[in-house]
Amino acid sequence: MVAGVHDDAVAISGEIAELRHAIHRDPEIGLDLPRTQAKVLAALDGLPLEITAGRSLSSVTAVLRGGRPGQTVLLRGDMDALPVTERTGVPYASQVDGVMHACGHDLHTAMLAGAARLLSARQAELPGNVIFMFQPGEEGYGGARQMISEGVLDVTGERPVAAFALHVASSELPLGIAASRPGTMMAASDTLDVTVHGRGGHASQPHGAADPIPAACEIVTALQTMVTRRFDVFDPVVITVGSFHAGTADNVIPDDARFLATVRSFSPAARASVKDRTVRLARDIASAHGLTATAEYIDGYPVTVNDGTELAFAEQTIAKLLGSERFVAAPDPLTGSEDFSYVLQQIPGAFIMFGACTPGADPATAPFNHSAEAVFDDGALADGTALYAELALRRLAAG
Ligand SMILES: [Zn+2]
Ligand SMILES: [Zn+2]
Questions:
Q1: Using CA atoms, how far apart are residues 191 and 243, in angstroms rounded to an integer?
Q2: 171 HSE (CA, 13 A, CB side)
Q3: 311 CA to middle of ligand 2, Å?
Q4: Where are the alpha helices (DSSP H) in the chain?
Q5: Residue 249 C-alpha to ligand 1 middle, in angstroms?
Q6: Distance between Cα 188 and ligand 2 center (Å)
Q7: At what angle do helices 13-25 and 105-120 cross, to 10 degrees?
Q8: Which DSSP symbol is given to 245?
Q9: Residue 152 DSSP one-character state
Q10: pLDDT (average), residues 103-112
């Protein structure tokens, strides 16, 4: 049963590439992807799947119920594109102005649809159920969280025992090389929004006003001191103030000063701590100067944490399916973030990067995901499709 998955993926790889190209030509952004959803539904048409469309977003949840009793495994592929004007020159380039599949989610969608076909053909002997999670709105819209609130994790009647997601990379990894690590795989990404409230006045008489600018500057530098004094260097946080605005003229003290910072952390503990400490530090420094500060900590995506056992299982699966040289242990987490983290907060599983660099390009210098020039090679499609299918087959067989 297991031996034929890769051959079968190769046999349908032309159709998977066609679907991928159709999605790539016609990209959509955010939570509402009606044209992409229609392409997925057409690709799944005729397969023995229980299909539900999302209510608040254009997701597709497909369930394959195996012919033998067993557990449930979830496979996720995201579907959304980015506000980028494509400059790749590929024949299937975007035909929508200012929108591009620059993160390779078109490959994920097509590979997951391909895996649904491969597994459907094995329905009779499948020992358990597979949830195919076709997810909109990964790029900052929290689509995974919305699908969870609409019940994707409970759709078979019992929680999945494991969840897996693949993510292609247009550089950094050679074509066909998978990379991941146990524990923290990607950062949490949050926003700190601080406004220091003072009282404006004449710049020649600062004692008669309440100047918010020096206090806001002091908060900015104190945040960096806090990073080095209050956090373990081996569980780091990154705080970057990327926006700072106050005032209108050299001779006017403004009423307030506002800045925005991105905050990255790599463990739930560091994240909870930085959230509490940044807000307190901003308020207390303002207070020390007789001012007030409004400090809001806006949660982005949580830390993406791979389960060690499920990752080891995925590594073995990659070795058996593709060869042991095809998996590399990632030495460090990625500083980007991912909303598959919401799934992994509830279900043990693994998020695996998969190289899709074009064979002629140098993985060290080729444009990376989100670049207008990022090219993802079709050569990753058959392996990725087979890997999705094999992860489900082997995990269900393991019980
Ligand atoms: Zn992305
Ligand atoms: Zn992505």
A1: 11
A2: 15
A3: 19
A4: 5-11, 13-25, 34-44, 105-120, 143-149, 212-230, 268-288, 308-322, 340-346, 381-398
A5: 40
A6: 15
A7: 140
A8: E
A9: G
A10: 98
**pLDDT for the residue numbered 230:** 96
**Cα of 317 from ligand 2 centre, angstroms:** 23
| Tokens matching residue 79 | 């579907």
User: At 399, is the pLDDT very low, low, confident or very high (cuts 50, 70, 90)?
Assistant: confident
Compute the distance from residue 221 Cα to the ligand 1 centre, in Å.
30
Give the pLDDT score at 139: 96
State the pLDDT at residue 197. Answer: 98
Residue 196 reports pLDDT greater than 70: yes
Q: How many CB atoms lie within 10 A of CB 317?
A: 24
Express each pLDDT in 235-274 by its tens digit. 999 999 999 999 999 999 999 999 999 999 999 999 999 9
Tokens (6 digits) for 117: 């076909």
Q: In angstroms, what is the span from residue 170 Cα to ligand 2's centroid? A: 11
d(CA 318, CA 394): 11
What is the distance in A from the centroid of ligand 2 to the CA of 369? 8
Q: Is residue 1 over pLDDT 90?
A: no
How far is it, in rounded angstroms, from Cα 27 to Cα 24? 6
Residue type for position 102: A
Ligand having the closest approach to the CA of 339 = 2
Give the rounded distance of the alpha carbon of 311 from its chain centre: 17
